């Protein structure tokens, strides 16, 4: 409403200008972004689609003859693709809830009122700006079975040394640990902002009503935080499906293919084996699945908001 | 609020102390790996492979001197700076103008484009890497800085656009209206009035974009091979080598060079970074 009122001086001015010129000026703000996204996002996606339905010609290094669904049939019959999808799924199922829960819990801890609170909050940015590939390499060293400091400490309490990168399950655990280390601070940050924005009076009321800490948490704080928790989950999901750097640096998919996430597999197929057509078909499948699941999560988070 | 900061009553000072102590402990745990990497980078080779691990040792710059000259680290560092700075500036210009268009310039259909651009956050980069590589190869654009800068704009422009949109919406409308009544053009109002006021937001957004470009790996791996390779590619190479050679010294030194400048930058602008990130996440 106020928009319309506020707009009137501006539109009075535009009437004096030639209409087309003004329209051009208006669009010129949006146009660079649109052109860029069409050229660098939309076009590549269509090109991927094109390749995925064609035979790839190594000689011309481009899409050749149209072969319909052949590449898709081949990919769907390829157990290695499904293995990498399974690895990705396991990673997501563990990493996402752990990171979201841990992030909110740590945000609660580091926002205890005391003089050093601001410092802790600032220091928590550090893991977040460590390049994922550095994080992978760094943790590779820390988790090393012979010389790694974590194994030394685990040995002191009688738990190790663990062969983090030799055992399939431990390697997956290592990847999740590294990813959690790298990304939880990001969730801590969002959670902090959300917690500080909580309305005070509700908590006062709960206190007057004699709620204890636990019931205040579950019947007041959590319901108020549900929208943010859901949004955090969706954002973290959008980042986690792109998982590539950490795995590449820490395990390179090993041992065997135990941590070979789908992005790494597609990368290998395309740029090591030069099977671009199959890689494109897999990329399209991943793209569609990601979009569908993102849509479902967005809808789910909206439903969740309505409930509370 | 009571739940966040309850000190008195039942829980009492003791409960708060436990919370503070746990908070400090968690922070130490999260910072330790970076500390350990930086520490290791100043060790002599013999001090790296010890059991128990050494906290005290005579420091050396051996590794740095060796790897700055060998392995072309200087050149890769320069490439990373060029690409990060280029993508930061370029994406900020394009993204901020689009964000402004969405926030203030009423144009039909812009919102649809805005939504489409936002949706692109769901596109896995691997789906773009294959065609980008093929097209860049065809146009003779592989291994050039500009290629990486353009490739990075696919995720930076949507990010900047959305962040700056929410920033511009929060500015009072009277600002550019009075400017335009005073005879400023739309561009004049944007560049002379809006941009200076939004400078802190713009700069923090640009710094965050630069950090994202600085640490990107997949596109850099695919689109460069010698002249324009960046630090993450170098690290991926060294980390790949450790499977055979365990070249930890190189890994820690190159890792430190990659991480420390970004950490310093991030801490300098942490107030804005925190606000920008939190806003981008919750309002986006």
User: In what range is the share of β-strand residues of chain B?
Assistant: under 5%
CATH homolog superfamily of the largest domain in chain A:
MetI-like
Give me the CATH architecture of the largest domain in chain B, please. Answer: Orthogonal Bundle
Strand tally of chain B: 0
Query: Helical percent range of chain A?
Result: over 70%
What would you note in describing this structure?
- The complex is a heterodimer of chains A (308) and B (284).
- With 308 residues, chain A is mainly α.
- Chain A folds into two domains: 2-52; 72-307, MetI-like fold.
- Helices cover 74% and strands 3% of the residues of chain A.
- Chain A has 13 helices and two strands, in the order ααββααααααααααα.
- Chain A has helices at residues 2-16, 19-52, 70-76, 79-110, 117-123, 132-142, 149-156, 168-196, 200-208, 213-240, 245-250, 262-271, 276-307; strands at 54-57, 62-66.
- Chain A has a two-stranded antiparallel sheet.
- In chain A, a hairpin with a 4-residue loop joins β1 and β2.
- In chain A, α2 (19-52) packs across α13 (276-307), α4 (79-110) runs antiparallel to α10 (213-240) and α4 (79-110) packs across α12.
- The two termini of chain A are 29 Å apart.
- The relative contact order of chain A is 0.12.
- Residues 1-14 of chain A have low confidence and may be disordered.
- Chain B has 284 residues and is mainly α.
- Chain B folds into two domains: 2-63, no CATH class; 71-283, MetI-like fold.
- Chain B contains 15 helices and no strands.
- Chain B is globular, with a radius of gyration of 23 Å.
- The two termini of chain B are 26 Å apart.
- In chain B, 48% of the residues are buried.
- The model of chain B is unreliable at 6-10 (pLDDT under 50).
- The interface between A and B is large, with 116 and 119 residues.
